[in-house]
Amino acid sequence: MRVSLKDVAEHAGVSIKTVSNVVNKYQHVTPAMRARVQRSIDELGYRPNLTARHLRKGRTGIIALAVPELGNPYFAELAGAVIDAAAEHDITVLLDHTRGEREQEILVSQGFRARVIDGLILSPLELEAEDLRRRDDDVPLVLLGEREYDLPHDHIAIDNVAAARTAVRHLISRGRASIAYLGARTDSANRPAHLRLKGWREELTAAGIAAPDSLVGPVGGWNRWDGAKAMARMLDAGVRPDAVFAYNDLVAIGAMRVLHERGLRVPWDVAVVGFDDIAEGQFGAVTLTTISPDKQAIARLAVESLLRSLAGGAEPGGRALTARFRLVERESTLGRR
């Protein structure tokens, strides 16, 4: 039979209210009393009925996280961080995969699972601000990623321009003067690829280094083969940079493979910096220097933003929340020591 709060209270010799306070982690329980109740919980094997708890609040205890591509290690790692952050609040996370397609992102944002979830964390690639302005679903929404939206929803991102400048500044400090950017796109200018390109240009200009278009490599996507194709096209055109700043780690890894095939050594001939700090970057033949967004902070801010909205404390115009980043220096710019 399922162990109840009453069973725990009788076993511990305390009131049901005291057990409830311990289970719900209220702060005004003394350490001695908390330990006493916890011993009874452990001995009896009590497990809270989370479904009933959420239903009493008019909620399901489930939120959704929609990302473009679960096969991309960055989004997989971010999803893990969101699940961990939500678990601290006894919340279950439902994962959705939009493939970065606008129609699928619209479907998700319009609440086709509104009866199931309490809130939605969405990382869009193609969704436009107008799509979200037409949204008539009242399920709280938090946006992730570096697309800039002027909308009444909390939006969590890092400073892409500053991060790109940090990456390029590091390459310059290593004596590089012909620094390519792999990751240009032709879509709207408020997307991460353009913001990172902007940071690349600004830092080179500030250092008095040329930033010709020949050093800008367009990509069709964000995967390893996209980086490989972009690097190959640049080298085939006779352009030989001494450094590469890539849109993300997957693009960087693809570029490093082509550099190896062409007989160019990383970092001695060409230094490389990626973006995202995925685990794969630590295990190649040459480990990857990268910009590391604080994924745990992004996840925590996203979950807390949803909880704030559910509690009625959301700002009317939404908030722009910025997570930190750092440069992680590895062999692709430093060499082996």
Automatic annotation (TrEMBL):
SMART domains, sorted: HTH_LACI
The superkingdom listed in its UniProt entry is Bacteria
Please list the residue ranges annotated as the HTH lacI-type domain: 3-57
Gene Ontology MF annotations: DNA-binding transcription factor activity; transcription cis-regulatory region binding
Q: Keyword Transcription regulation, does the record have it?
A: yes
**The keyword DNA-binding is assigned to this record:** yes
UniProt xrefs under PROSITE patterns: HTH_LACI_1, HTH_LACI_2
Q: Which Pfam families match?
A: LacI, Peripla_BP_3
Give the protein name, as stated in the record: LacI family DNA-binding transcriptional regulator
User: Which species is this record about?
Assistant: Streptomyces alfalfae
